[in-house]
Amino acid sequence: MILFLLSCCFFILALKSRSLKSFISRLRQMRLLLPMFSVVFSVEQMRKCVVFSVLDVPMIMPMMKTPKGGALNGSAAEVEEMSLLDLPELAMECILERLSPAELCTMAGVCTYLRDRCRSDHLWEKHMKQKWGRVIGKTTYGAWQWHMAANKRRNLLDARKHNALFGSISSIWPLRLVIPRCGDKSEFESSLPVDSIMALYLSLENGKFWFPAQVYNRENGHAGFMLSCYDAKLSYNSRTNTFQARYSPHGQHTTEENISWDRLRAPPVDTPAYVLHGSDCLYDLKPGDHFEIQWRRNKDYPYGWWYGVVGHLESCDGHAYHCNCHNSEVVMLEFNQYAPDSRWRRTTINRKSHHEEGSEADGFYGGIRKLYEEEEISTWKGILPAKVLD
Ligand SMILES: [Zn+2]
């Protein structure tokens, strides 16, 4: 017990010094933690990472030894003479917390013990939030569960076909010729817990999971979508660090490529694209407020979210001392990306009886949400067009 406590104290001190960096550096140098920062997490590569056998554990031992000609001093030398698996819990945890996603993936292939440790949700939550937090929301998790369930069904069907084929072939050929190799791709995928954050992270990284999010100025800034944000299914391309989008099947263009991170956002509300959003801010709208409102071309199309600013009614001169617009039942909505004489420049809604309003000619305005967060407002201001649209 005393030895254990002494070990813990030692590692706490070591963590605050350069020795931990040295230790991790040594691990990397010894190729335990292969640098994979620029590597695509393809399933094939992940399969190569995974060698779930305790026979691999001795591979760890030699790399802990002091390298030839490398005179190490003090605590660093002491650390490097130990086995990784002998480290106290706290030290092990501190090391794992400092590993990148690629390093965790590699480390998970060393042995069953490290596999379980490296898959822990708490290790991946930080990485998930850091890279994906801004563009994924609650709907992503739901969609991902469906994605994994569909994969599982497909794998089961494939397995049944395979077993049927295996049965017929094995009656003809020697058994060893038809046994599938260990570490098969589907085996690795299915070995990841469906509800683990690591599995979701890898699914996002390899681009096979098309996740739901919203895209600003869809179709690469097409004038017909300027200052709007539309729902889409997106797939990440780690090679180009961009996204591909699939929009609703309605409309002229339904796909778009090379979408940068700054054009994406997680859906701010749970309202699906074909559902009218319940407006809960109608009595809180006053001139100068920023808002987003649903709008769609016709009732077969999905809604997009359009940015605007609350304006003054025509009866108001806009002077702060005379303005009574905030007490009126009618709210003036302005879309300043359009020219003053454009039919898209202004529209009105009624606070008391607002519902979907519009026509086939002008489209339909749906639910409205007031923007309270400065970050949201500044994002919209950042994509204002250089000149007004007709
Ligand atoms: Zn006014």
Summary of the model, kept short:
It contains 15 helices and eleven strands. By secondary structure, it is α+β, with helices and mostly antiparallel strands.
How many domain regions? 3
Approximate shape? elongated
Helix content: 25-40%
Q: How many β-strands, per DSSP?
A: 11
* Number of DSSP helical runs: 15
Which structural class fits the helix and strand makeup?
alpha+beta
Bound chemical compounds: zinc ion
Query: Which percent range describes the beta-strand content?
Result: 15-25%
State the order of secondary-structure elements, H for helix, E for strand.
Answer: HHHHHHHHHHHHHEHEEEEEEEEEEH
End-to-end gap: 78 Å
The value of Rg in angstroms is 29 Å
Keywords: Signal
Organism: Nepenthes gracilis
Pfam families: F-box
Protein name: F-box domain-containing protein
Strand-helix topology:
Elements: H1 2-15, H2 18-29, H3 43-49, H4 60-63, H5 74-80, H6 89-97, H7 101-107, H8 112-118, H9 121-132, H10 138-170, H11 175-178, H12 185-191, H13 197-205, E1 211-216, H14 218-221, E2 228-237, E3 242-246, E4 255-259, E5 264-265, E6 290-296, E7 304-311, E8 330-334, E9 346-350, E10 357-359, E11 363-370, H15 374-382
Antiparallel strand pairs: 1-2, 1-5, 2-3, 2-7, 3-4, 6-7, 6-11, 7-8, 8-9, 10-11
Helix pairs in contact: 1-6, 2-5
The structure holds zinc ion.
Zinc ion binds next to loops.
